Amino acid sequence: MTVRRLPSLRLPSVVAVTLLLIVMAVEIVLIAPGHVLSGGIVDGVLVFVLVTVGARVFGWRLAAEAPLATVARSVSAARALALVPLMRVTALGLPLRQGSPAVGTLVLAGLLGSAAVLCAPALCVSRRSLWGSGSRWLHALVALSGLLLGYLAYLLGAPALWAAGARPGRIWLVLIAAIAAGAAEELVFRGTVQVTFQRACGRVGVVGVTALFASTYLGAGSAALVLLYALAGIAFAHVVARTERAAGAVVGHVLLAVGAGGLWPVLFGRKAASWAHDPATVVAMAAAVVIAAAFVLSRPVRVAGPDVAAEQRPDHV
Amino acid sequence: MTGLLPHVVAHAVERRSVYGASTSYGLIALVLLLVLLAEWDAIGSLARLPRRSLMFAAVTIPLAVAASLTIITRVALLIH
Fold first, then answer.
1. Predicted complex ipTM
2. Which of A252, A260, A254 is nearest to A225 (CA)?
3. Is the CB of residue A273 less than 8 Å away from at least one CB of chain B?
4. pTM of the model
């Protein structure tokens, strides 16, 4: 394993980070009620630009100004980023009916998870790295941290996955949907988008993709809960940044989702802690996120591996 | 609760009828699918780039499934 620090951000990396910020801004706008249609249209344009025109112009324009490998990494990052707006456009395109979000989530998780696995080689991410664990103790640790973070999410008022008195069939469906959604989110955000961004932009890319991940949870209900998901994202991102393997993050996210909405409410009841909505809780969570982000920014990330050599093939740009 | 399908998005689609949702939100997915397929075909005729084809396949398959499910639902509603 080669772990080194990136010397500095080049122009292609700056363009990739700018695209990341645009996608994040759309995510934030889309989450506001009343802007779903306009957000969806912008997301559709973003998918097209990131997959086709943008990546091509990006490659042509910048190839003259930066080494081919740097441009190829940034183009890969831009293309991987297309999976995020694609997530929204596909969700809006599904024929969801009242009471069917569990089925919708399951279908969406299957589609987006498959898309991430399918496009991984095109982004110079080996499919094995999506499932592999690299340093096993580190992945086991982050997987178990999912249970702890899930307990914290439960205390902060994360909604239960199923209503009290739900039938066993419904409970199984919701549980499978939560597991599939957690796995798909990690394959998209950590497995493909983060890995390509950390190669293009180093630590800035890792923190940027984590912020994008947290922005998809802005509708979670409370600020403390959104910050908790940001904290979980940082923990998962750190392990992937060190190893370029997503297994621990996938298991951790699944345990977080199932623990917060299923396991802990069944064991301890469905009431959130009395301090869940205190301003002090939000401040404490924000401080934890800042400290965790500073820790990630201070650590080197894996920017070279067996897949990177293949990026320099001329057909990639 | 998942970032994959936020409550705002699910609620926006659910509160419309299948016809209403498919002619607004569904149209975005359908237009994007057609544009991407046209672009894929154009690129495919210029050169053989397996990596780019893989990327196009990854992006178009979810859209194609979503569009197909919407069409099937509309046909099913029409028959009933």
1. 0.93
2. A260
3. no
4. 0.88
